[in-house]
Amino acid sequence: MWIMGYKATITVSFLIWAECTMISDSRYCVWSNHTLDVVNSCPKTRSEVAKRATLKNCTSLAEIQNCSAPDIFKYHCVMNEFQNAFVEVCAPSFYIFGFCTEYNTYGAVIQPHYRLKCSNVDPPCAARYISTDAYLYTGCYDLVKNHIFEKSTEVPSQLDNLNNTSKSLEKNKRPNDSAYVIRIGVISVVSIAVVIFVGTCLFVRLYARTSSRGLSQKYEKCKPDATCP
Strand (E) positions, the chain? Predict the structure, then answer.
C-alpha cells in the first residue's frame, strides 16, 4: 500500500511541476532571461508602461535577438510562474486566451498562467488579449500584490517572535547565572576549608611525631646517668 501511495505522490508532484514549467519549445527565448528583473510593482497605465519600457530599453536588443521578429520583442511586466512576484522582462509578445499572463523563468517565455482563469479574477480579464496589454487586467495583479503583502508582514512577525524568544531566554538565563555563581562560590569555600583541614591534620601529626622522636632520643641519652630528670 505504501508503495502505491509513494507512486501517487511522485505523480502528483510531477504534474504540479509540469504545470509550473509548461512551455512551448518553439517559443523558448534565452534572450528574455538575460533581461529579467524582479520588481515591487507593475505599471497601471499606458503612460507608465511607456516610461518603464523606455528605461528597460528592449529596442536595443530587438534587432540582435533571434527569438522573434524585432517588432514583437516587447517590454512586459507580469507575474512569475509561481504567482508570488512581479517581473519585468523583454520578450516576444503572445496572444493569451482566457488566463492571466505570466513569464515562465524556466521556459523563458511569456505564456498563460494556467492556474488563474480570467473568469475567476475580479475584475476579469478579456477572453483574448495581447500579452503586452496584461497590465490592463488588475484582477490578475491584485492576487500577486496580496501574496507579496502577506509575505512582507510575515517577516516582521517572525523577527518579533525571535526578539521575544531572545528576551525570554535572557530573562530565564539570569537566575541560572546567579545560581551558578553561588554554586561555584560554595564549592570554592568548601574546597579551601578541606585543604586547610587536611593541611592542619598533617601538620599536627608531623609535629607530634617529631616531638615524640626528640623525647625518645633524650631519654636514651639519660638512661645511664641517674641524674637526668
Answer: 37-39, 73-80, 86-92, 95-97, 99-104, 109-117, 128-130
Name every residue whose Cβ is closer than 8 Å to that of residue 131 and which is 6 or more positions away in sequence: 76, 78, 93, 94, 95, 96, 101, 110
Q: What phi and psi, each to the nearest 5 degrees, are found at residue 77?
A: -130, 105
Contact indicator for 79, 72 with CB cutoff of 8 Å? no
Task: Indicate if the alpha-carbon torsion angle 210, 216, 219, 223 is positive or negative.
Answer: negative
pLDDT above 90: residue 73: yes
pLDDT of residue 56 exceeding 70, the answer is yes
Instruction: Give the bridge partners for 78, in sequence order.
Output: 87
CB of 138 within 8 A of CB of 99? Answer: no
Q: How far is CA 166 from CA 6, 81, 88, 161, in A?
A: 41, 38, 40, 9
Instruction: State pTM to two decimals.
Output: 0.57
